[in-house]
Amino acid sequence: MQANIIYEDGDHRWIMFGRDPNKSDGIIDTNQYMIQSGDQAMLLDPGGIELFAPMLSAVLKFVPTDQITHLFASHQDPDIISSLGLWDQALPNAKLYSPWLWESFIRHFGMERIQYCPIPDEGLTLGLGRIQVQFIPAHYLHSSGNFHVYDPKAKILMSGDVGAALEGTDAPLFVDNMAAHTPKMRKFHQRWMPSNEAKLDWVRRVRQLDVNVMAPQHGRLFQKQHVTEFLNWFEELPVGIAIR
Questions:
Q1: Distance between CA 17 and CA 164 in Å, rounded?
Q2: Which end of the chain is more exposed for a tag (fewer CB within 10 A), N or C?
């Protein structure tokens, strides 16, 4: 599994894990993230159960397990949090922040020692080391209870499935041409995002943030210029096409 530092300022870092050339062909590639600030770290959408071993190995190159104090699951899908039962054994003192709606579902993945901290629908702000991170509502995109993570100091938005593209593990880290990239996103967003109203609410929220990097759960990341281009494209894209 590859690890890429996408932001670093002293002891404040964002690291992306993914592009695993050894993953099974039958499993989609996912991006996992870690925010580190001082002696605390948070894993964002830490991955499926099949990724636990390479993910743990990659994470330990940056922090010891006792500094992984927080986990975040944007929603209940297995590709982002089915590894929970194994993290529960590795991180006995951590807290999991996830939508209140999905607690009884997520517990099916196994959680005896990690503490579940439900995020209310309106979101919340959490202190992590020397910084604060914000859980931004992204309901119905694509899950009915869903959040994204914004770090106002690093100016990074972890955007879950919004901005996702399903590509090979050899894809570049960042989008370099939106005209060439949008065809790789269109069908995914039109089918998996069910609500135009929810989409427009999310676009409005994100336009109010200062975002240098948008980091989705699948595919390439977006730098500042392409974040704006993505918002313009997504705003105009009709979604929920399966009901037509």
A1: 15
A2: C
- Asked whether 184 and 166 are in contact (CB, 8 A), the reply is yes
Q: Mind spelling out the 3-state secondary structure of 24-70? A: CCCCCCCCEEEEEECCEEEEECCCCHHHHHHHHHHHCCCCCHHHEEE
Give, as one character, the DSSP assignment of residue 235.
Answer: H
Would you say the pTM of this structure is higher than 0.85?
A: yes
90 contact partners, CB below 8 Å, separation of at least 6: 56, 65
DSSP 64-117: -GGGEEEEE-SSS-HHHHTTHHHHHHH-TT-EEEEEGGGHHHHGGG--SSSEEE
Q: Which of 157, 160, 106 is nearest to 134 (CA)?
A: 157
Mean pLDDT for each 10-residue chunk of the chain (244 residues)?
95 93 78 97 96 95 96 96 96 95 95 96 97 98 96 98 89 94 94 95 98 97 97 96 65
List, in order of start, the domains of the chain with CATH numbers.
2-243 (3.60.15.10)
Predicted local confidence at residue 243, as pLDDT? 59
**How far is the C-alpha of 176 from the C-alpha of 194, rounded, in Å?**
28
Q: What is the DSSP letter of 141?
A: S
Q: pLDDT value at position 92?
A: 82
Residue type, 182: T
